[in-house]
Amino acid sequence: xxxxxxxxxxxxxxxxxxxxxxxxxxxxxxxxxxxxxxxxxxxxxxxxxxxxxxxxxxxxxxxxxxxxxxxxxxxxxxxxxxxxxxxxxxxxxxxxxxxxxxxxxxxxxxxxxxxxxx
Length: 118
What we know:
- The chain is an alpha/beta fold.
- The protein has one domain (2-109).
- It is 39% helix and 31% strand.
- It has a six-stranded mixed beta sheet with strand order 1-2-3-6-5-4.
- The relative contact order is 0.20.
């Protein structure tokens, strides 16, 4: 897992690393505004579905240079992590999701607890 500031780094670079490593990334837009960009697979789909609202968006918008990634991060953060955003490719297949940072951390803790042997 790594961390990136989407206002200082190129969104396309952040997305490429998440996809290449198949590893989540803490994405920060500004102080106090962050989310977690996760690859959508059988593992991380569960944390996406833990959000009350899931908004669909296009991958091409996420990777555009500029502030789109930051605005998605603000959306997730400012809704008290009620919203998550699922990004789809040109064929409409889900590829990545931006989820709430605190929800993600709680989900990780639950996963760790569930994997411990009694």
